[in-house]
Amino acid sequence: MVRPYTPTGGRAAPTRRTLDLATLLIADPEKPLRGLDSHSHRLMQHCLPGVLSLAEVSTDLQLPAAVTKVLVSSLVDSGHLISRNPVPAAQQHDMHLLERILDALHKKL
Fold first, then answer.
1. How far apart are CA 22 and CA 85, in angstroms?
2. I want to staple 80 with a disulfide (CB 3.0 to 4.6 A). Which of 33, 71, 75, 86 is the partner?
């Protein structure tokens, strides 16, 4: 059994308070992985193929979410990861609905 503070190097809290389980993580493929501890290196390799949520990374790497947040915040600070909040449902557009409205407006003209 590994203690939760072991993967974080003893850090108990993330440096960023904006991270939550829905935060999207994007790895910078140009950043070298040399010098990263084994857990951060593994996290980066996991994120390199595409965009993943913090919850997905935590689950896939079998790490507690609190530990993953600490690791992710350090990688965001170093520029290895970019974090993005997911688009709120209110800001998403239903293109099919918008097309139907546009078609209806054209018919009335």
1. 7
2. 75
Q: What is the DSSP string of 36-92?
A: --HHHHHHHHHHTTS-EEHHHHHHHTT--HHHHHHHHHHHHHTTSEEEEPPPPGGG-
The terminus-to-terminus CA distance of the chain in angstroms comes to 70
The span from the CA of 88 to the CA of 11, in Å, is 31
Nearest to 61 by CA among 49, 50, 47: 47
The pLDDT tens digits for 5-26 are 555 555 555 555 678 888 999 9
**Average pLDDT, integer, range 86-104:** 78
Number of CB atoms found within 10 A of residue 31's CB: 15
Structure tokens of 25?
């993580």
Q: Are 67 and 8 in contact (CB under 8 A)?
A: yes
